[in-house]
Design brief:
Length: 165
């Protein structure tokens, strides 16, 4: 991600990192180390996002999220969701960006991670682009799925978090 911020998109840098991560993932699977698998999935997803391979990024980020759910790692769950939200935003899939971003904001804020602000900024950008009513409609469409992960109180708290930023 630092390379991306510096606009250093030399493919061989990312290809090398991806190769190391894939080897690490295979070893973690062999050792049945779910925590390491989750981190490898996440890192692979971020690497593929950076190089613009969105569908591959989504696959790895979703696997990272599911694995982090199994291990109970809220931080990794939130980070995977934040990067999923960014990926869906880049694909102009605002509904999925709102769904994943809302979960990320809530989960990361609940563990007092300052990183909750990253997806919150993205969601506020979406609100400015599509309007508050359209945003609320997308949030409402995903209400049942959001509640299944963070409960009614979490769902109700999302707009408050976004307004406070």
């Amino acid at each position: 991600m630092q390379g991306r911020e510096l606009e250093n998109l030399e493919p061989e840098i990312y290809e090398s990192a991806i190769n190391y991560l894939e080897r690490g993932l295979k070893l973690a699977e062999k050792l049945q180390d779910l925590a390491t698998q989750s981190l490898c999935f996440s890192s692979l997803g971020i690497a593929y996002l950076v190089i613009g391979q969105h569908q591959t990024a989504i696959k790895y980020l979703e696997m990272g999220f599911r694995t982090a759910q199994v291990t109970g790692d809220l931080y990794t769950q939130g980070c995977n969701l934040a990067y999923l939200s960014e990926t869906y935003y880049q694909l102009l899939n605002f509904e999925k960006a709102v769904y994943t971003g809302s979960l990320a904001v809530y989960l990361l804020e609940q563990i007092a991670s300052q990183e909750w602000q990253q997806p919150a900024v993205l969601l506020n950008t979406i609100i400015r682009q599509i309007g508050k009513d359209s945003f609320q409609e997308l949030l409402g469409k995903n209400r049942a799925k959001i509640i299944s992960v963070i409960g009614v109180d979490g769902y109700d708290y999302i707009p408050e978090l976004l307004e406070g930023l």
